[in-house]
């Protein structure tokens, strides 16, 4: 049972995307939000409405979804100085997002009030109080993020506390203390959090950054001191070196501090790698709990001890977080992970079953070739079907060809794809054009299959990602393609890998159609 009154707040889709190299499409953001909701996150911050077309579209799409438990949250700031809150355009966008919860930030540090906002301390507090009260009167749950609180409190404790009290006076539901510059230490965070709770008599949350390498430690210190909400991001993505990593915080809270915060902790690794794949970021092999090396034993002494008693060199059971033990000399490592993922897709096996070994061997072989299945559940399910003898290919490929022609001055170009297939004992030979080589190939494959599988018309490609796997090989590098598809009800990912980006795309395309059209 979830610990009463304690909540998790994810800001991957806003604060996380401020990290260098991190970007999500609207489709990505919805998929990540769905995954967070299913995992048990309480608040999902979708972005800053009105700041860009992508975030506007996200909130529009999010309003159409039925969320299991999470509250989609819009993020913004207090009203502008010397401006009536009802006339502030940015505050209006927070209401237009139509989310049940709104998070706003305000200035706690006198340095920022004087040199950034350039207003008086009194006006700064009015900006906080007015904005919170305005949103509360319009039936929003309001979370107040006290930006730079710890730096501000170190400089002028009373000034920082008065800004918090302004938010309380406005009716804020939760006051969140932010270590925005990431420069505070755990003992400072614990001490000041406890003092704030004693002063305000209000629920307090914590939002930390990792600039000193203690973002997670600071969050846990605040929880020890009485904080009832932790804000962070999946994999610690965020501004500069990143935010507090929820992937480390959540299992520590649940397994070591006795707080039940999510119902299925065993899905943690899958969540971490899923978000990494959509962000087009290689997962950190040494990430606590979920990294590939987290439960890998190589040294002879370690291996010998673990084979006798696992807890001699493991701080938790890897299965609890969806990871698996890897002993370099063992051919059986990884079965638990396959079993859990297969079970999530509706398949049940006994550990040690020959099918499990076959699936595991296929996964290891394909991952060595450049495949990743974390966000490619469609391709993974096909592996299982093949191992069970329940997969029948939609067609037999005879040949495909893709060409691109362009005039020297760039005034005209054309992509064309030819596909030859054998489908249900009939030959199909079609030609199609497209905006690019992959689009043309997709059009040709659909055209060839449509007479035999009419339902293919309802399958749409929503997203297409390319990752170079071994960049040091230059133009000869291996390529991984991840495709996201939907039929209007379900969304699934498929993957292909090859030295040739066209072939990798073809493999992912074929998996996408075979996954859906071959499913019973």
CATH superfamily label of the largest domain: Aldolase class I
Number of domains: 3
Oligomer: single chain
Biggest β-sheet description: 8 strands, parallel, barrel
How many beta-strand elements?
Answer: 16
Sheet with most strands: strand arrangement: 1-2-3-4-5-6-7-8
Helical fraction: 25-40%
Rg of Cα set: 26 Å
Number of helices: 17
CATH class of the largest domain: Alpha Beta
Note the topology.
Layout: E1 7-10, H1 26-39, E2 43-47, H2 53-62, E3 71-77, H3 89-96, E4 101-107, H4 110-117, H5 121-136, E5 141-147, H6 149-155, H7 157-170, E6 174-179, H8 186-200, E7 204-208, H9 215-224, E8 229-232, H10 246-256, H11 268-278, E9 296-297, H12 300-308, E10 326-327, H13 335-344, H14 354-368, H15 377-388, E11 396-406, E12 413-423, E13 426-434, H16 437-449, E14 460-468, E15 479-486, E16 491-498, H17 501-517
Parallel strand pairs: 1-2, 1-8, 2-3, 3-4, 4-5, 5-6, 6-7, 7-8, 9-10
Antiparallel strand pairs: 11-12, 12-13, 14-15, 15-16
């Amino acid at each position: 049972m979830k610990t009463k009154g304690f909540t998790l707040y994810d800001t991957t889709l806003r604060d996380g995307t401020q990290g260098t190299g991190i970007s999500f499409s609207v489709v990505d953001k919805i998929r990540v939000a769905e995954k967070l909701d299913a995992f048990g996150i309480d608040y999902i911050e979708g972005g800053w409405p009105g700041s860009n077309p992508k975030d506007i579209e996200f909130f529009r799409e999010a309003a159409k979804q039925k969320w299991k438990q999470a509250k989609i949250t819009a993020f913004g700031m207090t009203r502008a100085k010397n401006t009536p809150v009802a006339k502030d355009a940015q505050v209006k966008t927070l209401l237009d997002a139509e989310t049940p919860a709104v998070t706003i930030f305000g200035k706690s540090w006198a340095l920022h009030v004087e040199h950034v906002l350039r207003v008086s301390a009194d006006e700064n507090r009015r900006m906080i109080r007015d904005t919170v009260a305005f949103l509360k009167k319009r039936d929003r749950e309001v979370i107040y993020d006290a930006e730079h609180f710890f730096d501000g409190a170190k400089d002028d404790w009373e000034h920082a506390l008065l800004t918090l009290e302004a938010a309380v006076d406005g009716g804020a539901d939760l006051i969140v203390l932010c270590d925005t510059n990431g420069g505070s230490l755990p003992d400072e965070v614990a001490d000041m959090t406890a003092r704030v709770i004693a002063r305000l008599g209000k629920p307090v949350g914590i939002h930390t950054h990792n600039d000193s390498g203690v973002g997670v430690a600071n969050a846990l210190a605040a929880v020890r001191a009485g904080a009832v909400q932790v804000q962070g991001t999946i994999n610690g993505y965020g501004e500069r070196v990143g935010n507090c990593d929820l992937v480390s915080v959540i299992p520590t809270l649940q397994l070591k501090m006795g707080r039940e915060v999510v119902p299925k902790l065993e899905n943690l690794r899958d969540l971490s790698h899923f978000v990494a794949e959509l962000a087009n970021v290689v997962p950190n092999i040494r990430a606590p709990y979920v990294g590939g090396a987290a439960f890998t034993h190589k040294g002879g002494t370690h291996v010998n001890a673990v084979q006798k008693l696992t807890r001699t060199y493991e701080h938790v059971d890897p299965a609890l977080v969806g990871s698996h033990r890897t002993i370099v000399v063992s051919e059986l490592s990884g079965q638990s992970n396959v079993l859990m993922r297969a079970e999530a897709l509706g398949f049940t096996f006994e550990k040690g079953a020959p099918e499990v070994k076959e699936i595991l061997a296929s996964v290891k072989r394909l991952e060595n070739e450049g495949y990743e299945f974390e966000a490619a559940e469609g391709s993974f399910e096909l592996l299982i079907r093949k191992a069970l003898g329940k997969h029948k290919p939609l067609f037999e490929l005879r040949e495909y060809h893709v060409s691109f022609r362009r005039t020297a001055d760039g005034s005209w170009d054309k992509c064309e794809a030819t596909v030859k297939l054998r489908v249900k004992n009939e030959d199909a030979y079609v030609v199609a054009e497209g905006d690019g080589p992959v689009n043309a190939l997709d059009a040709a494959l659909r055209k060839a299959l449509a007479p035999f599988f009419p339902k293919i018309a309802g399958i749409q490609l929503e997203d297409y990602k390319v990752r170079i796997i071994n960049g040091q090989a230059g133009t000869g590098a291996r390529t991984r393609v991840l495709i996201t598809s939907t039929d209007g009800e379900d969304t699934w990912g498929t993957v292909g890998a090859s030295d040739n980006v066209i072939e990798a795309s073809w493999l992912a395309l074929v998996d996408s159609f075979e996954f859906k059209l071959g499913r019973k």
